[in-house]
């Protein structure tokens, strides 16, 4: 029965026709907090054979001592008992790692359906920015996905002797969904994987616009004041009995959603928690990118920082910086330095699926699905997805 249910879901996911899916929660805020993956499919295996691998992509001398904990690129792999099977890459959402709850759930679904799986972190995660990003300034889809593509090839080479792949597939949710399409575009030229199907779940059309919208959720609730954001964060952490346990040691989206998902919250509170999860990812993005690029926005003397340095003052300087802060203070100046004619409009376009608009329109292998009231999309985004991908809103 479990196998049958998983194959039904897989058939829906990999179908190239316009389709819809039934989501059991009408409220988009609650759906985001609880998590779509855990609600869509009953009967999925609780545990699958999952192993984490490490690859040294960057030279260690290029990684500051303070970040040596993440110097190696990590990915997770699950294999079938039968070596001969299709393989699917599962791409994490914005700022998420390969080992988050939603990624693991997707791996379990596809493993039950007979697929080998490889999970890859988001280009905006700490892990990827430090270990695999060529410039540690993510945000431009084509450039980011060249790095992801390189990591995918290395990951596959690491495990290829254990499998006999019949076909390659790729899927992702949120930013991972947008990445999936761009990676397929890159692969059309490189022809390493020759993906048979590509699936996008709730992809942002324009990363910049979606990020600013998520930033606003938190600022509307807190007035954009750091002390109010800190109070909300402390209130959230106080919900964990006995203090911060190892389960919540990495404070990110999974942590926050797990803490508050059982609460009765107003829409404003739900927006605030969604915004808080994103803001913490943005704070990491600001700090790591500033440090790695020596932009000196938050870290004035990075050359003096080592693994023994007390980082409190540096974290304090970031002060819950937004994604817009990252773009204005680090990202755009970095790109501008390498191209004096570069404009903010160039950045916004290159952070958008419009960079592969023609490919999206003509490729028969890509399918997309999104919620009718998806939080990170506006009407223009929905129109774009519908036009280019015949994407169904449900």
From TrEMBL:
The keyword Signal applies. Residues 1-20 form the signal peptide. One of its GO terms (cellular component) is membrane. Keywords: Signal. This is Serine/threonine protein kinase. It comes from Fusobacterium nucleatum. The lineage of its organism: Bacteria, Fusobacteriati, Fusobacteriota, Fusobacteriia, Fusobacteriales.
């Amino acid at each position: 029965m479990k196998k049958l249910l998983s194959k039904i879901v897989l058939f829906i996911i990999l179908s190239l026709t316009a389709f819809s899916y039934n989501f059991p929660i009408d409220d988009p805020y609650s759906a985001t907090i609880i998590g779509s993956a855990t609600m869509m499919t009953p009967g999925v295996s609780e545990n699958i054979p999952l192993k984490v691998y490490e690859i040294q992509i960057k030279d260690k001398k290029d990684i500051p001592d303070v970040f040596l904990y993440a110097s190696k690129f990590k990915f997770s792999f699950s294999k079938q008992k039968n070596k001969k099977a299709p393989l699917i890459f599962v791409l994490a959402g914005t700022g998420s790692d390969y080992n988050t709850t939603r990624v693991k759930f997707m791996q379990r679904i596809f493993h039950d359906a007979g697929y080998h799986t490889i999970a890859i972190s988001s280009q905006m995660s700490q892990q990827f920015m430090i270990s695999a990003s060529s410039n540690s300034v993510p945000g431009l889809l084509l450039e980011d996905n060249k790095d992801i593509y390189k990591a995918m090839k290395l990951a596959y080479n690491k495990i290829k002797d254990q499998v006999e792949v019949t076909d390659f597939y790729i899927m992702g949710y949120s930013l991972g969904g947008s990445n999936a399409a761009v990676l397929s575009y890159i692969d059309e030229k490189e022809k390493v994987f020759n993906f048979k199907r590509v699936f996008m779940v709730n992809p942002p059309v324009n990363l910049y616009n979606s990020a600013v919208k998520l930033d606003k959720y938190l600022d509307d609730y807190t007035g954009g004041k750091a002390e109010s954001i800190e109070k909300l964060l402390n209130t959230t952490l106080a919900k964990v009995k006995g203090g911060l346990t190892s389960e919540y040691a990495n404070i990110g989206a999974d942590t926050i959603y797990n803490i508050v998902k059982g609460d009765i919250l107003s829409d404003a509170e739900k927006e605030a928690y969604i915004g808080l999860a994103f803001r913490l990812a943005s704070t990491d993005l600001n700090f790591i990118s500033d440090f790695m690029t020596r932009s000196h926005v938050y870290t004035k003397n990075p050359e003096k920082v080592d693994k023994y340095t007390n980082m409190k003052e540096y974290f304090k300087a970031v002060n819950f910086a937004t994604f817009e802060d990252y773009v204005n203070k680090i990202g755009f100046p970095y790109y501008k330095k390498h191209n004096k004619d570069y404009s903010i409009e160039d950045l916004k376009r290159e952070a958008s699926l419009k960079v592969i608009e023609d490919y999206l329109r003509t490729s028969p292998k890509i399918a997309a699905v999104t919620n009718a009231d998806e939080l990170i999309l506006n009407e223009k985004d929905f129109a774009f997805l519908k036009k280019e991908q015949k994407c169904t809103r449900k």
